[in-house]
Amino acid sequence: MAVCTTCHQSGITPGAHACPGPRYEAVAFTRHKGQGITVDTAPPRVRMDVRVLVDRYAYLHMPAADRIVFADQVVYRITGYADGALELELVEDWRPAPGVQLPLTDEEAAAIKTRWKEQHGNGQAVHPVTVLNQEDQP
User: Fold this and answer.
1) Residue 44 DSSP one-character state
2) Do residues 74 and 92 touch, judged by C-beta distance below 8 A?
3) What confidence tens digit (pLDDT) does each residue in 79-130 have?
4) Largest alpha-carbon pair distance within the chain?
5) Is 12 exposed, middle or buried (0-12, 13-18, 19+ CB in 10 A)?
6) I need a surface site. Which of 48, 78, 111, 132 has the fewest CB within 10 A?
7) Do residues 58 and 50 lie in contact, with contact meaning Cβ atoms separated by under 8 Å?
8) What is the pLDDT of residue 44?
9) Banded pLDDT at 67 (limits 50, 70, 90)
10) Residue 53 to residues 19, 59, 61, 64: CA-CA distances in angstroms?
């Protein structure tokens, strides 16, 4: 008995396995100049090279030892480690549902922000944001 190197199915006989292909997909981002980062795809299971953790352009942080938050939009739990890659499982998806009209109202945005801080905030102070491009200012 062996383990398939592609789909990681255990208990197979070498040469007698119809491999369905990789079980893991990638998290895809889009950078919107002047607006921020959006997560385009967040599959239920992901394999991520550990070198991504030190990449400053990865748009992620770890609020706990077993959690990774991508672009403040999706939360993954670390479920394993194999061949230099972390195996992740989707826990929460904070992206708006398809068809939701953006921008949100101030009340909706405040409710989402409060809920996110309660669950994933790291306890650091939040810095105030000064909007400099409003047209109604003299």
Assistant:
1) S
2) yes
3) 888 888 888 999 999 887 776 666 678 888 888 888 878 877 666 655 666 6
4) 75
5) middle
6) 132
7) no
8) 87
9) very high
10) 30, 9, 8, 14
